[in-house]
Amino acid sequence: MAKSVIAYVTLTVSTTAVGLSSASTPITHAATGAIITLETAQIRWRADGTAPTSTTGHIMDISDILDFSEGNWRDILNRIQFIRTGSTDGALKITLLRTF
Fold first, then answer.
1. How far apart are the two ends of the chain, measured CA to CA in Å?
2. Residues contacting 75, CB < 8 A, separation 6+
3. What is the reported pTM?
4. Nearest-angstrom CA–CA distance, 36 and 66
5. Residue-wise pLDDT tens for the chain (100 aa)?
6. Is residue 80 a contact partner of residue 45, using CB atoms and an 8 Å limit?
7. Which residues does 12 contact at the CB level (< 8 Å), separation at least 6?
8. What is the DSSP letter of 45?
C-alpha cells in the first residue's frame, strides 16, 4: 500500500488534555498513520479514550517518538490525548499520513 504525507503540524501540550484534532488541521480525521516526536518538556499520553493526567498515562520524554506509520491507526489517532507533566508546555511535531 502506498503512503502519503497529508500534513505536518505542531501541537502544544499544556495543562488540559488535548488530542490530535486540536492540531488545527482540517484533515486530521483523514489520517491513518502518524509519526509524533516530542520537544520542550515531558508529557503523558493515553489512547484508550480516557484523558491522561499529569500523573497517569504513558510518559513521553523529549526526543521520544510515537510511530504509528505502519498499518491503519485511525482509531488510535482519534482517541489519543496528551497532557504535560510539569510546569512547561510540551511541543509535539506531528507528520500525518494516509494509506492509499
1. 6
2. none
3. 0.91
4. 5
5. 788 999 899 999 999 999 988 766 666 678 899 999 999 999 999 999 999 999 999 999 999 999 999 988 989 998 999 999 999 999 999 999 998 8
6. yes
7. 18, 89, 90, 91, 92
8. E
